[in-house]
TrEMBL record:
It comes from the Bacteria. The keyword Oxidoreductase does not apply. InterPro entries: AAA+_ATPase, ABC_transporter-like_ATP-bd, ABC_transporter-like_CS, ABC_transpr_LolD-like, MacB-like_ATP-bd, P-loop_NTPase. One of its GO terms (molecular function) is ATP binding. This is ABC transporter ATP-binding protein. GO terms for cellular component: membrane protein complex; plasma membrane. The keyword ATP-binding applies. Residues 5-227 form the ABC transporter domain.
């Protein structure tokens, strides 16, 4: 399995805390990696550093072997739009746009005509169990449906890597399980890798591998031979 994304010796310090104290991590082709650890252990900082949102103080981030951590802001934001997809805990959809336009947004931002972008966006509704909800606005969707729309938006531009930060954090247990099951399976089918921060061991168990982080360091790995 080839490596898509890697972090080597990542260090990130804030005035009051060392969020990352030298982290090595590699994410394989189509692999799903869960990042777990106590509150304040550096999970979100690690995800944001791998995604080119936070610049590390030391160490390197490589996408398909190419170093990206020292790229300029414009180049990094174009990379994030084209090659990465993002799913957050909640509140990431634009309330005034119908679901299909929310999904189409990354394509429109890249200059695709609205009707073409929406046509491509609609293809994601059936695989995510969202058929018939294309015209609904986010306020007319349940929490689980809104997260599935967010997953469709993260995948629509066919990214190399999807980053998810507590994607089930605002959902009840069974809705969260359904969302993570779809997130891991659809991401894999699309050919992308997944990096997901979660507090929830049941959610993490849907990933191929779990990275345990503690005090800004990798504390351990759990490798599943087959994800559920
Ligand atoms: N912008 C910031 N400024 C100062 N300190 C920060 C900043 N971001 C994170 N930290 C500190 O870095 C450490 C790691 O934070 P991080 O958010 O990565 O942890 P986490 O494991 O994601 O926590 P949680 O599970 O509570 O979200 C913490 O001590 C935090 O207080």
């Amino acid at each position: 399995m080839g490596t898509v994304l890697s972090g080597l010796g990542l260090v990130k310090k804030y005035a009051s805390a060392t969020a990352l104290a030298g982290v090595d991590v590699a994410v394989g082709e189509r692999e799903s990696l869960a990042i777990m650890g106590p509150s304040g252990s550096g999970k979100s900082t690690l995800l944001h550093t791998l995604a080119g949102i936070i610049r590390p103080d030391d160490g390197q981030v490589l996408l398909r072997g190419e170093r990206i951590d020292h790229w300029g802001e414009n180049r990094l934001s174009a990379l994030r739009r084209r090659r990465f997809g993002f799913v957050f805990q909640s509140g990431q959809l634009l309330p005034e746009l119908p679901a299909e336009e929310n999904v189409a947004l990354p394509l429109m931002l890249e200059g695709m005509l609205r009707k073409h972008a929406v046509a491509r966006a609609r293809r994601w509704f059936a695989p995510l169990g969202l058929e018939g909800l294309e015209q609904r606005r986010p306020g007319q969707l349940s929490g689980g449906q809104a997260q599935r729309v967010a997953i469709a938006r993260a995948l629509v531009a066919e990214p190399d890597v999807v980053f998810a930060d507590e994607p089930t954090g605002a959902l009840d247990q069974s809705t969260g399980e359904e969302v993570v099951r779809l997130l891991t399976s659809v991401t894999r089918e699309q050919g992308a890798s997944l990096v997901m921060v979660t507090h929830d061991a049941d959610v993490a168990a849907h990933c191929d591998r779990i990275l345990q982080v503690r005090d800004g360091r990798v504390h351990g790995h759990i490798q599943y031979t087959t994800a559920p």
